Amino acid sequence: MTDRRPALRLDATVVVAAVVVALTVVVSLLVRTDDVRVVVGAGPTESPLERSDVVCPAAGTDLRVATTGTAGEVEVRAGRSRSRADVVPGTGTTVDVGERAAVVTGEGEVAPGLVAARFSTPLAAWACGAPAFEQWFTGAGAGARHTSALQLVNPDEGRAVVDVVVLGADGVVDVPALRELAVRGGETRTIELARLLPRRDLLTLGVTVVRGRVAASMVDSYQGIGSGGREGTDALASQPAPAERNLLLGVTGGRGPRQLVLANPGESQGRATLSLVTSDATFTPGGLEPVDLPPGSTVRVPLTAVLREAAAGDEDPVALVVDSTVPTTATLGMFVRGDLVNATPVAPVESQGATPLPKGEKLLVLGGATRPGVAEVATWDADGEPLATERVEVGPDSAASLELPGRARLVVVRPARTPVEAVVRVTGKGAATLVRVVEPVSTGLVPDVRPAPVG
Amino acid sequence: MSSPSPHAGVAVVLVTHDGARWLPGVLAGLAEQDAVARVVAVDTGSLDASRDLVRGAFPDADLLELTSAVSFPGAVDAALAHLDALPPEQRPEWVWLLHDDARPAPGALAALLEAASDRPDVDVLGPKLREWPSLRRLLELGVTISGTGRRETGLETGEYDQGQHDERREVLAVNSAGMLARREVLAGLGGFDERLPMFGNDVDLGWRAAAAGHTTLVVPEAVVFHAEAAHRGLRRTALTGRHTHFQERRAALYTLLVNSRTAALPWRVLRLTLGTLVRMLGFVLLRSVGEALDDLAALVAVVGRPGAVRAGRRARREQARRLGSAPDTARVKALLPPPWVPYRHGLDFLADVTSAASQQAADIGERRRIAAAEADPSSLAAARLRAEQARRERDDDEEGELADTGAFARFVTNPVALALTAVVVVLLVGAGAAWGSVSGGALSPVPEGAGDWWSLHLDAWHELAGGTDVPAPPYVLPLALLASVVGTTAAVSALLVLSAPFALWGAFRFLRVTGRLVSTRGAPRVLLVGGATAYAVVPVVSGAWGNGRLGVVVAAALLPWLAHATLGFADPEPDRRRRAGWRVGLLLALVASFTPLVWVLAAVVVVLGLLVTLLLARSALASRTAWSPPLVALLVPVVVLLPWWLPALRAGAGDALLLEAGRVPAESLTSSGLLTGRLDVAYGAPDWVGWLLLGLAVVALVPRATRIPVTVCWLVALLAAGLAALLAPLSLTALTTTTPPGLAVLVVVVQGCLLTAAVLGGQGLARSRLNSLTRTVALGLAAVAAAVPVAGLVWAVTGDDALESDPAGVVPAYMEQRVEQSPARGVLVVTGSIADGLAYEVRRGDGVTLGEDEVLALTPEDAATTEAVRDLAARPTRDLVDRLGEDGVQWLLLPAPADGEVAARLDATSGLTQSGSDPGSRAWEVTRPLGDGVAGDGSSLRPVLLGVQGLAVLVALVLALPTLRAPRPPAPDETPDERTGRAS
Fold first, then answer.
1. What DSSP letter does each residue of A308-364 carry, written as one string?
2. What one-character-per-residue DSSP string does A217-271 give?
3. A28–B750: do the CB atoms touch at under 8 Å?
4. Which of B829, B856, B866 sits opposite A449 (nearest CB)?
5. What angle do CA A85, A86, A92 make, to 5 degrees?
6. Which residues contact A22 (CB under 8 A, 6 or more apart)?
7. How far is CA B16 from the centre of its chain?
8. What is the predicted pLDDT for the residue at B239?
9. CA-CA distance, B930 to B211, in Å (whole number)?
10. What structural domains does chain B harbor?
11. Nearest by CB to B704, which of A7, A160, A213?
12. Are A212 and B914 in contact (CB < 8 Å)?
């Protein structure tokens, strides 16, 4: 009769309670919300370029414009003068703009594939390109013997502002005049480094555009002072960013001085190893020691003896590879036939690269392939007649060379299966230069745009 | 003015009109008086046996028969004229006025005359009036009138006469029923004012008497019983009309205006007008709309007919001239009540309303038992109740001694008060991050002023982003109301800081009442404190508080109050159930405005509850008052929130109905989150505390006494869990974000249910007999249970949160200032890069503030704007810039790190001028003509919806208030015919 454990007696309430609790737990465990997804931006899509601006520095004489795209009319602005010129694929068009900087603008169908270059005698090539936001010039001089001039061209109507950092042998050089440097709309501003910061060490200039668009270029010259001094002027081309591997194409054997200039814009110490590239292989000859790269400084590495010895061997090295533990910029300064020739890294060509060419003997140097592939090389003469189309095999860790017809005034390089980097070494009477083969921008990037999440 | 023979020369003037119901008593009382020299009966056209009764009782009386058109003042005038016409030696010195519903107690006249002989300076005397037929309640001991026209008796309503007011004192006026006045003085004052035919003429007479320098004395030894037939509407004549309240109020206003000084007249009119509005509000709160309208009509009647007031004032001026002395304003002023009296009445009224409103369901357990006992007085429960009441009365006596100690002493000796105070202090300290300006996580910054919230609520079209007709979320209205008082920053800060203490208070009340509902003695206090504390920290330990999820925090604070109000459905009285329906409806609307899913849950609970009751106990739903209150409660939010959900559906923003206040995305839930009370955010407490509570709630089913209520708690938790399980798979889209529905409030509900179950289980365990083994187990359980609130409090103090006081803005200050001045001007902010994609928003006003965030999140993406921004970033043209200008975009901003490519393209675009910006970011000003791109009309329906909302809130508020005034019970001997009265 006496139930000692009434709480556990199985009556209706117990059953109901147990069922309710079990159901609650089971149902609760079923609750699971979908993950929150914030639709983040996707990558851009490519669309045909609507407009392209190619800016040429105030150097050299005639401006040569060519296209890998569609024939049409481009606008050429030089100072306040505006002219129009026809461009036809396969033909370089010469436009006379005097010595002023010029902006070549192609709109609509003409925009894709526009390339331009200027040349001067004694032989020097002045690369034209689209305005860039970051450009690194390695190995500039600001002394009496070696002087460089930075040229800033603003192709737009609005004001542009650039910041220039200067790396010297002992670290960053503070130059207040090069901060927040304004370039008025349409203006070409030239800064003689020797005037601004006279010093003897080699310098590296990093040009960052803060506002607006600016195309920067540099004129690099050596004046012979005293006995045995060598003279020469060439463009000191830029590279878009420091990299851990820099390929310098167009190494030329010979007796003249060779010096490699490396800069480490970063804040940590680095070390670079140098290798030479021949048509077969990449190797490090004896005597080519690793180079220490102090942070924020420019380092000069004399290579005259090493390159001379290497050139005396079986294979003539045509390129130099700088591998570094930190992102680095590099320029190889050479005196070829008594003329200054600067070699700087060039951007790889993915589908089609081109450049107008000056008169002179020409050697196309191809390197930087990531896997075995071929490159189709086509040339045209000054009248637009096709000269030759050849296929060159390229592979990693080697460089290929191809003699181009002397009459060639336009070269187009189409790599297959691998991107390649290409320069054309042009030698003339007592002078030489390297002409960079660039891939013209043919598509524009249309960003993915969405409303921002609220809050 | 002494009289040589005080007992000679009193003439009784008895005014009768259809008073046959009371007259026998009145005449009997009159017959008991000693000093009556002459009786003058004035009958104003009675249709009943009044005249015969008078003749029968006093054959010698002078009976003046007048028509029913003659008012009370006219009747008195006629009597005075009659007396005046007597030979001088027969003219009485005193006149004693009696109504046909005023029965003098034996010795009343003698007492009055004795007082008159004691105070020869007195010209008017009045007795103590007591209620007839109750005989014990005090009606009046002299009256005066307040500045707002209220008849002041200085007595509480229904106060019993225990001799507490028995002292003779000078007063402004005495009631005309039982008034003893010198005949010459009465005649000299011109009798009663004819313009006050029925009510309030006694106050006016007293005022005039005082102004003329006469003294009025109330004599408590003299007692007259007064039925107040006309005042109570028991007797209706052409003079009283159907609206006695209107007549009384009109008389009061008239009295004030005719007797006050000329200089004070404009002020009086203004004050009476404003006062009338306030009184009307009060009457509306009492659900006495008729009286409110009477008040208004009386004001219009008096102020709208200045002629009557002018005539009255002229008459008083002439009287003063006749007397040849200036009015004795000092005497009058001393006899009028102090000026603060009306305000004290107002405060008393507010306090009454508040306390009644807050206590509505507090004693529901007791009242259910009383009702059960009344239904079956022989039951065991009834016997127990009687024993309990006896014990409580005994305890009250003992406590009466304790009650003499001060409030502080009572506080420090009350462990519950001390514990709750300590918890509140800890909670306030723990909420330190929310003091002052606060935003972060799901909480947007507040706007500058309450006006921003008001316009967000009132406007049908919002000048946000590209302009939108998505309605403001419903919680903007309560926020605006709060911010109008304390400001926006303090409003949000106060909500975040005070929500936990408020939840603590509400949970304590709810658990106490629930405990008493379940068993007589209720839950032990330590359980109540622990349970309430554990509930108060639910939003904190769940992570909702730390993530700034304001909606859930506020809902959690209000839910126990809502649950408390819901208990009113179980009240035995139908009227209280009805009130509970409206009250729950209002609270549900308030909670649902922050967390709409609560309404859905309520609907599920109500519908299922009614269905189950219908199946199991159909008889319980026989009465309409049983099932209609819950349905009313469900309907009120639907109407009150109409300006939100209807436009939201029309604007295609129906997702709003499933979200919670605050930024999207809503917090996710993992599968154990509902049981452990944790949201999937970084700010929740460790899971094990939640598992502890779950375990306790399961164990709570063991004690048999409380198993059914605990099961009910689990049932509600099951419904909440089921709702969550149904809704969880939904994925709502808010602009570029997908978000789960706002389920956090269901987490709070489930936790509340588990807590209530645990407390009730604890109550069952504590109240059951334990042996040594079970006691050990119970002690162990108590230790585990204590860990839940303690761990919660520790987390409240130590937990992390996303709240910050001053988030950095991306828009430069100068732009912000300019766009704040003009809401049509905006800043197009484009973040990201070409490589990774760009995101844009148009900032207007003071940025995206609380309330606007939800509007913007629910506004569908404007594909044309997106396209325009894409083109602007890819290939900007002057046309696009023109369009920006037309849309009212004054600046274009790329915050750091700005994409150089886009920046360069914009630099090269004409119509854009570079503007100053922070390092790394870029800005342009649009130098094209600026249009009013965000202007829009919105729906013209909004004013209607807002009107419906306002009206619904008002009606629900009035209907939710408890019944403060019981209707006066009709006299026992009254018949329906008499109540209806005669309208001649």
1. HHHHHSSS---EEEEEEEEEEEEEEEEEETTEEEEE---PPBSS-EEEE--SSEEEE
2. EEEEEE---STT---EEEE---BSS-EEEEEEE----SSS-EEEEEEE-SSS-EE
3. yes
4. B866
5. 100
6. none
7. 44
8. 64
9. 73
10. 1-241 (3.90.550.60), 414-449+487-798 (no CATH), 813-926 (no CATH)
11. A7
12. yes
Q: At what angle do helices B597-616 and B574-594 cross, to 10 degrees?
A: 150
Please write the tens of the pLDDT for every residue from B192-237: 988 888 888 899 999 999 988 899 999 999 999 998 877 776 676 6
Radius of gyration over alpha carbons of chain B, in Å?
A: 37
Contacts of A452 in chain B (CB under 8 A): 736, 829, 831, 839-841
Tokens of A250: 């167009």
User: What's the token pair of residue B732?
Assistant: 């709502």
Measure the CA angle with vertex A125, ends A122 and A131; round to 5°: 145
Give the SS3 label for residue A288.
Answer: coil
A312 touching B (Cβ < 8 Å): no
Q: How far apart are CA B595 and CA B660, in angstroms?
A: 5
Residue B671 has pLDDT above 70, yes or no: yes
Task: For residues B737-750, give the mean pLDDT.
Answer: 91
- CB A444 to CB B715 under 8 A? no
- Which residues of chain A have a CB within 8 Å of the CB of B737? 36-39, 453
Task: State whether A211 and B728 contact (CB < 8 Å).
Answer: no
Q: What value does the mean pLDDT take over residues B464-474?
A: 87
How many Å apart are CA B892 and CA A239, to the nearest integer?
31
- Nearest CB partner across the interface for B839, out of A33, A47, A450: A450
Query: What CA–CA distances, in Å, run from B909 to A303, B162, B903, B913?
Result: 48, 95, 10, 9
Alpha-carbon distance B110 to B563, whole Å?
62
Report CB contact under 8 Å: B908, A20.
Answer: no
A213 Cβ under 8 Å from any chain B Cβ = yes
Q: How far apart are CA A406 and CA B566, in angstroms?
A: 99
Look at the block and give the residue holding tokens 């769940």: B542
**Chain B residues close to A241, C-beta within 8 Å:** none
CB contact under 8 A, B729 and A34: yes
Region for residue B75 given its phi and psi (left: phi exceeds 0; alpha: psi -120 to 50; beta: otherwise): alpha
Quote the minimal CA–CA distance from B742 to chain A in Å.
Answer: 10
Q: What average pLDDT does the segment B923-939 reach?
A: 80
Which tokens sit at A318? 């045509």
A26: closest CA of chain B, how far (Å): 9
Residue A228 contacts B, CB cutoff 8 Å = no
Q: How far apart are the first and last CA of chain B?
A: 43
What average pLDDT score do residues A288-297 get?
93
DSSP string, B481-536: HHHHHH-HHHHHHHHHHHHHHHHHHHHHHHHHHHHHHHSTT-S-HHHHHHHHHHHH
B676, B708, B707, B710: which is closest to B694 by C-alpha? B676
pLDDT for the residue B69: 85
* Closest Cα in chain B to A46: B874
Question: CB distance A447–B837 less than 8 Å?
Answer: yes
Q: Cβ–Cβ of A43/B837 closer than 8 Å? A: yes
CA of B966, closest CA in chain A: separation in Å?
43
Pick from B465, B668, B725: which is nearest to A35 by CB? Answer: B668
Report the alpha-carbon distance of residue B249 to residue B151 in Å, rounded: 9
pLDDT of residue B933: 67
3-state secondary structure of B595: coil
Residue of B663, B714, B743 with shortest CB distance to A455: B663
B199 neighbors B248 (Cβ within 8 angstroms):
yes
The answer for A 8-37 residues in CB contact with B (under 8 A) is 8, 13-14, 16-18, 20-21, 23-25, 27-37
Q: How confident is the model at residue A1 (pLDDT cuts 50, 70, 90)?
A: very low
